[in-house]
Specification:
It is globular, with a radius of gyration of 24 Å. Strands 1-13-12-9-10-11 form a six-stranded mixed β-sheet, sandwiched between helices. It is of the alpha/beta class. The chain is built from eleven helices and 16 strands. The chain has two domains: 240 residues, Rossmann fold; 94 residues, Phosphofructokinase domain (Rossmann fold). Helix 2 runs antiparallel to helix 5 and helix 9 packs across helix 10. One of its GO terms (cellular component) is cytoplasm.
């Protein structure tokens, strides 16, 4: 059996007593956000998280304290059973599956430590909106409303898929560098060891590490990664591109890896999906976990992706420097280009933090350069009024007005 997990996924929804929890009808609607759900149908075993952790807070809370909203990818591979221990087909979206309750799991302990599969988190918290508001949808009853999208709550489950003593995990960082990579590697190792996993390999220099014999895997442990969060870059190294999938899957099979964590962006997750599909064809007992690496903060459901805060902080410094330069010149204009091919989160947050910006251009909002209400006319007005104009542009702003090329690089990026 093979499972591919991502931060967009849902957990199983089974409960031993479906009548024990009552939700209003909107909460029982099918999950409407794009996601990839796991396909594991395996007998569950009781989690040893309580004895291993020694404390009463969930691993997601620990991750949140250290990484912002890092999501539950770290624990997903091990944890995905409801506390009653029913084996569920997670492809059955929202179907409750009955199971016998385990006499070993104390309800009070569960309440303090574990998260039940019926826990749900609202993605949109606005209950009612005016028809003229942004984001309003027309429902089947003819009412205007915000659709109450929800997601499964992250956190440790009382029942898990894999016996930790038999788990051999591997971690790889791919693509470009991102602030917080070492924090993620460190926390993955910490969390795996909390569950009793003792065999953890670090793949060096991205997917390249599977085929380059000069860079063998590193055996990871809490002691080895304890202080890597104090350093920048990636402790494991990064590289772009992907060797032949067959070679990667061959190494995974050769090294007896049954839990694979891929930390990367769009291209890396495309590679992770392809690896998952190859493993599925070989009927390998393998779980692939995708951990999104993007400073753009453009992943729905996640409050904040790791590295975003650092990106905003550094971008703010660039904006302030541009303001200083422009204000020192006669009719000075400062232009700052920031990352954001398809989203303007960094640009907007850095602009708000700086407070020195006159014009912001982001991919989500269309604009014109010329004309009475164009960008150039507004710049002219600001210069005449204040003697200075600071413009911050996300790199993907205005792409609709340009001829888009059809070329894409090996990571799948292009079209600019």
């Amino acid at each position: 059996m093979v499972g591919f997990f991502s931060c967009f996924r849902r957990g199983s929804s089974g409960a031993s007593n479906p009548q024990a929890f009552h939700f209003s009808p909107p909460f029982n609607d099918p999950f409407a956000l794009p996601h990839i759900s796991d396909r594991l149908i395996m007998p569950a075993i009781e989690s040893n998280y309580r004895t291993k952790s020694g404390f009463g807070c969930s691993s997601f809370e620990i991750l949140s304290d250290n990484l912002g909203s890092f999501c539950s990818s770290v624990t997903v591979g091990l944890i995905d059973r409801h506390p009653d221990g029913a084996a569920a087909n997670c492809c059955d979206r929202g179907n409750s599956i009955e199971g016998s309750a385990s006499p070993k799991v104390d309800a009070n302990d569960m309440r303090r430590i574990y998260v039940h599969d019926d826990d749900r988190v609202l993605v949109k918290i606005v209950h009612f909106g005016h028809p003229s508001s942004v984001g309003i949808e027309y429902d089947e009853n003819g009412n205007w409303q915000f659709r109450p999208l929800w997601a499964r709550r992250a956190g440790p489950r009382a029942w898990i898929y894999f016996n930790p003593e038999q788990v051999k995990a591997a971690i790889v960082t791919c693509g470009g560098l991102c602030p917080g990579l070492n924090d993620v590697i460190r926390q993955v190792v910490f969390t795996l060891e909390t569950y009793g996993v003792n065999h953890i390999l670090g793949i060096q220099y991205g997917f390249k590490g599977f085929v380059d014999k000069n860079y063998p895997p590193i055996k990871l442990s809490r002691k080895l990664v304890k202080t890597i969060n104090m350093e920048g870059g990636s402790f494991l190294g990064v590289s772009r591109g992907c060797p032949p999938l067959k070679d990667i899957v061959d190494r995974l099979e050769e090294w007896n890896i049954n839990m694979f964590y891929v930390i990367g962006g769009n291209g890396s997750h495309a590679g992770a999906t392809a690896i998952y599909e190859q493993c599925e064809k070989r009927k390998m007992k393998m779980v692939v976990v995708g951990i999104p690496k993007t400073i753009d903060n453009d992943i729905e459901i996640l409050d904040k992706t790791f590295g975003f805060d650092t990106a905003v902080e550094e971008a703010q410094r660039a904006i302030n420097a541009a303001y200083t330069e422009a204000s020192s010149a006669y009719n000075g204009v400062g232009i700052v280009k920031l990352m954001g091919r398809q989203s303007g989160y960094i640009t907007m947050y850095a602009t708000i933090a700086s407070g020195q910006v006159d014009i912001v251009l982001i991919p989500e909002v269309t604009f014109t350069m010329g004309g009475k209400h164009g960008v150039l006319e507004y710049m002219k007005q600001k210069i005449e009024l204040n003697g200075i104009c600071v413009v911050v542009v996300a790199e993907g702003a205005g792409q609709w007005s340009l001829h888009l090329c059809t070329y894409s690089d090996e990571t799948g990026n292009g079209g600019v």
